[in-house]
Amino acid sequence: MQWTNLSEQTVYENRWFRVNLADVALPDGRHLDHFLIRLRPVAVATAVNAANEVLLLWRHRFITDSWGWELAAGVVEDGEDIEAAAAREMEEETGWRPGPLKPLLTVEPANGLIDARHHLFWSESAEYIGHPEDDFESSRREWIPLKLVPDMVARGEVPAANMAAGLLLLHHMRLADG
């Protein structure tokens, strides 16, 4: 039951995204017009320290008018390595420089409408380098015990699905056996 994108045209574009209209053929031969958003990849990073605390940002999202815990994240610039982008975002948004990053997972948060892949990384160490350059991104930055993550997600305190998935996986990896 595969849908086929026969063609698409851009109806709006800026430096962040493109809105395209696709002519899609359905398996039964019918066609439909389908809007889609083309985005740059998103790079995400955090660190977990020796006390099994994870570095999070508390921020407000005006689009949904909601507050929640998130990981440092941003778009990958043209020609930028995804892992380097993740490290850059963590440093800019938290003031902490990650140690060697390890891939955590890659997710597609809304693949029925948007093509963006979110690449999550983590490190077992971080060095504080000073107040974050992009301090407007969050109200505060804190080291939160990983053991609290499942309850935080269940209470809706981590509203972004990509962040919840990454944090739950980190919780499982670091604490499931202990």
Compute the CA-based radius of gyration. Answer: 18 Å
| Approximate strand percentage | 35-45%
Uncertain spans, ≥5 residues at pLDDT below 50? none
Major beta sheet summary: 4 strands, mixed
List SSEs in N-to-C order.
EEEEEEEHEEEEEHH
Q: Calculate the terminal CA-CA distance, rounded to whole Å.
A: 43 Å
- Structure classification: alpha+beta
Kindly state the number of beta strands.
12
Shape: elongated
Helical proportion? 10-25%
Number of helices: 3
Strand order of the largest sheet: 7-4-10-9
Mean pLDDT metric: 95
Structure commentary:
With 178 residues, this protein is of the alpha+beta class. The chain has helices at 82-94, 149-154, 161-175, and strands spanning 4-13, 17-25, 31-39, 42-47, 53-61, 66-70, 72-75, 96-98, 102-107, 118-123, 126-128, 140-145. Strands 7-4-10-9 form a 4-stranded mixed β-sheet. Strands 1-2-3 form a 3-stranded antiparallel β-sheet, with no helix packed on it. The longest helix is centred in the last third of the chain and has 15 residues, at 161-175. The model has no long low-confidence stretch (mean pLDDT 95).
Question: Summed up, what is this model?
Answer:
It contains 3 helices and 12 strands. With 178 residues, it is α+β, with helices and mostly antiparallel strands. Residues 38-171 form the Nudix hydrolase domain.
